[in-house]
Amino acid sequence: MTTDRFTILFVCRANICRSPLAERLTRYAVQTRLGADRADVVAYSAGTEALTGQPMHPHTEQVLRERQADPDGFASRQVDAAMLTRADLVLTASRRHRAYCVALAPAALTRTFTVRQFGRLAQAAVLPPATSPADAAGRARSLVAAAATARSRVQPVSAEQDDLADPVLRPVEDFRVCASQIDQAVEVLLDVITKS
Q1: Model confidence pLDDT, tens digit, residues 110-143
Q2: Which end of the chain lies in a sparser environment, N or C, as judged by fewer CB atoms within 10 Å?
Q3: What residue ranges define each of the domains in the chain, with the CATH number in brackets?
Q4: Nearest alpha carbon to residue 140 among 101, 103, 191
């Protein structure tokens, strides 16, 4: 196992619904799928308008527990340029959040996508098989680069198809729908990472 780490930063507005849901679902999926290599992939989250230190929404916690993911120890935080610059992949809840992140840290442009956009682009990405890195972090970085390249080949979609709808004032079922959409995008990433 390498000491190199691949970091994923999830960003939404308040960092209490969508981004903590994505962070904790990803952590659980990484732990389940990567085994010994799980320390190579780190997920965390922040918000564009977050009040620091807030707990996650009760429905977020409920959905995480339903899926055996750990909601404990969470506290919201405000995204900043340093977080965006350090992250290997920035996945936002919406196009608006993506634009905010890129304006805050222009160097993160090619590594910043909406969650659903990344899922589509990663599926269309062409990875050079002969140069596939042996470690999980290296494979993940290769996929991010290939997804960025795929932007010019994949037909754009509507904002409705790119964005995760904000479930904050909605019933718990809307949080479950959001979780399923996050799962779809994260599974593509993990499928590549877990290939030997």
Answers
A1: 999 999 999 999 988 887 665 566 778 888 899 9
A2: C
A3: 6-193 (3.40.50.2300)
A4: 191
